């Protein structure tokens, strides 16, 4: 089992910044990839950014490239998502996830956190 706990969500004005954190525990060595997803009301869950724990290879969705930065701490088994230049379209519940492969499809990830709300106001 892998447990994931997100934190850091909140309300921010458009153009502002917010940093999310995800703490992983349990059998994390069984899952090579960790990622952030988000889900806005009435929409499907979508990939935001992901990383391989060992190599550090990181990928981003086009919609956040250049604005969001994913970082990790292998010792502490934590992920962070620094979100800059936030837009109203970034409003969503953000989830941390763990899976075997670094891919964008949701089905690859079998462990999920409870989510943290990010609201961007105009």
DSSP helical segment count:
0
- The whole-number mean of residue pLDDT values reads 96
Number of DSSP E strands: 11
**Biggest β-sheet: count, sense, barrel?**
7 strands, mixed
Q: How much β-strand is present in the residues?
A: over 45%
SSE class? mainly beta
Oligomer: single chain
The coarse overall form would be globular
The topology string of helices and strands comes to EEEEEEEEEEE
Low-confidence stretches: none
Radius of gyration, taken over Cα atoms and rounded to an integer in Å: 13 Å
How far from one another are the termini? 40 Å
Instruction: Specify the helix fraction band.
Output: under 10%
Structure description:
- The structure is a single chain.
- The chain is an all-beta fold and 122 residues long.
- It has no helices and 11 strands.
- The strands form 2 sheets. Strands 2, 4, 5, 6, 9, 10 and 11 form a 7-stranded mixed beta sheet that branches.
- The chain is globular and about 40 Å long.
- The model has no long low-confidence stretch (mean pLDDT 96).
């Amino acid at each position: 089992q892998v447990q994931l706990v997100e934190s850091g969500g909140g309300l921010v004005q458009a153009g502002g910044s917010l940093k999310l954190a995800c703490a992983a525990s349990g059998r994390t060595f069984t899952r090579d990839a960790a990622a952030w997803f988000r889900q806005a009301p009435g929409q499907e869950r979508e990939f935001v950014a992901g990383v391989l724990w060992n190599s550090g290879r990181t990928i981003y969705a086009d919609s956040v490239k250049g604005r969001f930065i994913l970082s990790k701490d292998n010792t502490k088994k934590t992920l962070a998502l620094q979100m800059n230049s936030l837009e109203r379209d970034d409003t969503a519940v953000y989830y941390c996830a763990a899976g075997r492969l670094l891919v964008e499809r949701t089905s690859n990830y079998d462990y999920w956190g409870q989510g943290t709300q990010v609201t961007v106001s105009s």
